[in-house]
Amino acid sequence: MKKDVRNLKRGEEITNSYMVFLDRHIQDVISGNVSEFMEVNEIADSLAVSHTHLTDTVKKETGNHPCYFYDTKIVEQIQVMLAQSDFSIAEIARIFTYDPSNFSKFFKKFTGITPGEYRKRTKTKVPKSSP
């Protein structure tokens, strides 16, 4: 029984480490500290586990493949940038290391709408002051 508890804790530890790594890595890409997104196998190496072990563990702990969380976290950060910045959509695509022509397809796959539509719906509007 102790082994099962230890394995469960290790699974949680690996999953949590993966999520923390993703958040940090995505911010590094956005800030320009890293020039491109790592592959999941490279992330596994950084966490000192095999690609298979990382994938199996995250799937067991969460029910989803590691790529699901990777893509979801990227899309969340894109949404923030679309809503809160004045960067053009092409600039945002480049910040996230996407070719602008593929960026809209990627975004729409996860949200159901294009980046332009998302921006129109969510862009923070500054209320006009009365004279």
3D structure, described in words:
This protein has 131 residues and is mostly helical. Helix content is 73%, strand content 0%. It contains seven helices and no strands. Helix 1 crosses helix 3, helix 1 packs parallel to helix 4 (66-84) and helix 2 packs across helix 3. The chain is elongated and about 45 Å long. Mean pLDDT is 90; it is low at 126-131.
In short:
Helix content is 73%, strand content 0%. The protein contains seven helices and no strands. The N and C termini lie far apart (73 Å).
Structural Rg: 18 Å
Largest sheet: none
Structural class: mainly alpha
Which segments are poorly predicted (pLDDT under 50) over 5 or more consecutive residues? 126-131
**What sequence of helices (H) and strands (E) makes up the elements?**
HHHHHHH
* Structure annotation, total helices: 7
Q: What percent of residues adopt helix (DSSP H or I)?
A: over 70%
Strand content: under 5%
Label this structure with key terms.
131 residues; mainly alpha; single chain; 7 helices
